[in-house]
Amino acid sequence: MKFIDEAKIEVIGGDGGNGCASFCREKFRPFGGPDGGDGGKGGSIWAVADRNINTLVDFRFSKVHRAKDGESGRGADCYGKGADDVFLRMPVGTLIIDEASGEIMADLTTHGQQEMLAKGGEGGWGNIHFKTSTNRAPRQKTEGKEGERRELRLELKILADVGLLGMPNAGKSTFITAVSNARPKIADYPFTTLHPNLGVVRVSHEKSFVIADIPGLIEGAAEGAGLGHQFLRHLQRTGLLLHIVDLAPFEANVDPVKEAKALVNELKKYDASLVDKPRWLVLNKLDMVPQEERAKKVKDFIKKFGWKGPVFEISALGHEGTQELVNAIYLHLEEKKHGEQRAEEVHMTEEARGISSIDPDDPRFKIID
Predict the structure, then answer these.
(1) Which family does it belong to (predicted)?
(2) Which residues contact 95 (CB under 8 A, 6 or more apart)?
(3) Fewer CB near the terminus (10 Å): N or C of the chain?
(4) Is 93 annotated as a binding residue?
(5) 166 annotated as belonging to a binding site for a ligand
């Protein structure tokens, strides 16, 4: 099925019911007084993150989502019934943006997370609320308020630990096939990958991580050239980027260093924070380079590219060096996770002790000899 990762919808909260102006007309109570009830509240629209859904395809065909109105109040102190809320189930990783203001309304990152999209209107007041000692027969009532109405843009960002980055035909699909359970289309022509692919990499029975492969990027991708620009947003959630470079391109006039630098420039144009993410250089297709030329070719590339980070030499097709890379990725992710947990524990401990905001210059904390 084609990957659907963007949709536009309209959400409309229900209107509140009107209040009622009524007077008691019971036997033996000729002046029973006002007894008009309030109107019920309108239904609200909620977004719910559901890990069992992986596309936004349903919202491509169902554009308008409207909650029911609340019932109006009636006499004899009868209050109107409130309308039920509407819950829209969306994939985990969905970003909800207000189309008019561009404001991010919600970011669904965990299963079961609920966010209100359009609030239902409050019900109107009946005349029972306007009774006073000087106004014993009020005829005032208020109408219910209108529910909120919004046009929203839904964007699905894949939740993956590792993202693959590279030019078309760099070998990203071959790599994800070699190390995970994903089976994307592989062919010897550019732009074989037309939509993102997710794969679960099993390091052992209880150890795994998720890797995402997006369509290849070309120069000008940030301005809309090629296909990968449509899916660059998926790399924003990943914890580690693997920059895969083809060291043995088919065409002699293709310069791997120039292509690698162009790709980094596209990342900067699209989102500077992507460049600051942990990024490893993966030199692929070394099986196409003669054994005696490998060391020199790798050294020359790193020098011309000006790379100072981690470098891995692999052949995705022959599974050469892939297991070592997988092990290194898992260790990196585990260290990062434990580091975040320790930082959170330290922060919570400091808050519990009340020392997180101590100013050493505060006269209350001067050291007395």
Answers:
(1) Belongs to the TRAFAC class OBG-HflX-like GTPase superfamily. OBG GTPase family.
(2) 104, 106, 107, 108, 154, 155, 156, 157, 233
(3) C
(4) no
(5) yes
